[in-house]
Amino acid sequence: MNLYPIETGHFKLDGGAMFGVVPKTLWQRTNPADDNNMIDIAATSLLIENGKQLILIDTGLGNKQSEKFFSHYHRWGKHSIDNSLKKHGFHRDDITDVFLTHLHFDHCGGAIQWNKDKTGYEPAFKNAKFWTNREHWDWAINPNAREKASFLKENLLPMQDSGQLNFLDRTEYRHFYKNLGFEVLFVDGHTDKQMIPIIDYQDKKLVFAADLLPTAGHIPLPYVMGFDTRPLKTLNEKKLFLEEAVDNEYYLFLEHDAHNEIINLKDTEKGAKLNSTFAFNELFTH
Fold it and tell me: Which domains can be identified in the chain, with CATH numbers?
């Protein structure tokens, strides 16, 4: 097995929305805001090369939305999914599986693209199976008013129409999927049945933290995103997860942190705290 970080493109989000009830004077210490209160956000996917399988975890925003849409998210930097795949010797047509932690647009938007003449949509990974779970899919295609702006039909329905959509069975809150080669933790605070991959790699456990822990600045328990549908649920899920991450020496791959690629944690009298930050290549070799 080999793993590769895939940079799909950076953007910005409102710092207040990213930290909920936490005052700006506190969260800006770790996530400084610009004059418009926007903070740097990454959308870093993870590519798993496992035998004949090439599994991409999340896809970023994609590029099919309107200028008005992207004007709200202030894309910056030169990263793209195609260039990042090419850097590691791959093409999007090589991808066999796309695993979507959840179906908010910044995690699945890149899975679907315009067709050639822009009359409709098509899968951006034509040879891949798209993986979600039935409960989350039903939640996404019948969205509540709070999440409706995050679940975009142009991202979802073309997956179903293509015949490439697949559902993982969920019989427990945590399960190892042999067909994917990693374990999945299901959490419900941010959105219903978000899936967190836990990967055994080079004698370490690497956790793709998705929106359970978007940045290193979100380690303190009350630092819960305003986007979360069940913030008290997130609080409890995060507490249990951080304790487990300390006890089992997890390395946390931060999908949304534009400045800290991987972190680990230490136990203190005040709970889990940041221990160290790492670049991917500092921890792992190919």
Answer: 2-283 (3.60.15.10)
